[in-house]
User: Fold this.
Amino acid sequence: MSLRHRVAGLVPQGLALFMAAVFLDSLRYKFTDHPKTQVIFGRLDGWTSELGLPGLFAHTGLFSQYVIGSIELLASSLLVIGILPRLRHLQAAGALAGLLVMAGAVSFHLFTPLGVDPNNDGGGLFAAACVNLVCAILLLGVFRRREFGVLLGRVAAIFAPLKPAAVRP
Assistant:
């Protein structure tokens, strides 16, 4: 195996570890109810309240910081566990979870009153969300496409009805 192939084989692992690190770093804000987190989720909850959906981003809401943080923790775990060759399909699952969370984050930054710099940090939080979204897209769409297919097949097998055995006369 050439050096080029070895290095190319490490790229998805690097993407997965980077994504996991970003997610895990954000948990110290979400799980401790940090003031910056209160600003972000408070602003989003105020916006959804104006739309007639109060409490959606509140502490006990469907999209609270604790729910989003838990999904990020799950995604991180799957991304890291998926480094093991036999569990690569779990890395695809982690990338999918990360893609969904980051697509939501980027969308909320762009299309709500939240804006790209809610914490006056020069847009660092928004930039991290964008980079993590690109990593998830690369991981799922380029490096773990086959494993994602395996994952979808396994999930479909759970929900697909069993085919009855052929009846012989």
Q: What stands out?
A: Residues 3-30 form the longest helix (28 residues). Helices lie at 3-30, 35-50, 65-81, 88-111, 124-143, 145-159. The two ends are 55 Å apart (CA to CA).
